[in-house]
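The methods section describes the discrete structure representation at length, but only in general terms. The central task, working out the structure tokens from the amino acid sequence alone, is never made concrete. Nothing conveys this as quickly as seeing an actual entry. For illustration, here is how one protein appears when written out as sequence plus structure tokens:
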Amino acid sequence: MAARAVKTNALSPDVEQVLLAMEAARQRTLQLVAGLSDDQLERVHSPIMSPLVWDLGHIAAYEDLWLSHRHGRLPLLRPELSGLYDAFETPRAIRGEIEALGPADARAYMAAVRERGLEAIAGAGIGERRRPTDRRSASGLVCEMVLRHELQHSETMRQTMAIAGLLPPGEPPLHPPQASEGWLRIAAGPFSMGARPTGFAYDNERPRHTVDVGAFRIARRPVSNASWMRFSEGGGYERREWWSHEGWAWKEEYDISEHPDVAAGHPEAPVCHVSWFEADAFARAHRARLPTEAEWEKAATWTREAGDELAALGSVWEWTASHFEGYPGFIAYPYREYSQVFFGDGYRVLRGGSWATHPRVAGPTFRNWDLPQRRQIFAGVRLARDA
């Protein structure tokens, strides 16, 4: 195990825990693609997704940049690869056309970078466990950021594999929730939204602030496959009055109907691979709406304290009505490309996590986002109504 390879008497328990978590994440990544051929790893399975082998190289390049270089003050292992595996310099549309590392070289690159990363941790430690007050100091939470980055990419890779029909046996493990249908009423009033000041959180989860939310009701369970099929078979993709202008134009241009996995899944399992446009239309058809992300977070935190539950939370991402924006007083940290460049009317917020989201990443304050037409994400719907 890599953690043992660098173990010395100087390593603290915190360092040991991080090393073990990093090793577990790497095994998770490698096991995911272990049964795939070189052709399956290198092929472009969808124009909106990267070749799987690019993801492997990107995971390594990100780790080398932040952990070895910026945290450990080591030179980049292969500086010529930095632009190739930069998500902004090399957009998804061209990743299948460039001369990237092949599967064997990508795995070797990952291993070499990891050895340097372990060296950096052994020499510099893991840094502060909370966000530094000095914004110039990016080393405090880098280890956790690098770890979660790899965990998040294992979900992105699963999205690609789902499109290509390459998911491992037993995935996705979507089952009927063990709770009755119905609605929870959440009382009006303020609550504290966002991550607490201490501990790891992404910049878009802070600062924690007070939001006054009116009374509302939220469904105990996410929408099921059976409910979605009734919507579809009842004219859901034909009734213009249920769709926004943008959603209808998208549906008509691409001849959209329900995703194939809906009919194939268990009738009472949460519906998956739903776009925001579809989720919005479904809600209108049922005289409901999507919750705002403030409502969603208040319900998720309130139900935990009250001993009630939102059933199947974490089975599928749940679309909200909210655009992706920074909270009042937002400060980009440690780099603006993680969140800030996506702020605006283009992206909608998803909450909760999916079956493919690692528990270390998912949480009641974590904010995911995507374009309203995207269906590759493991996303479903939970309805809300005014109280």
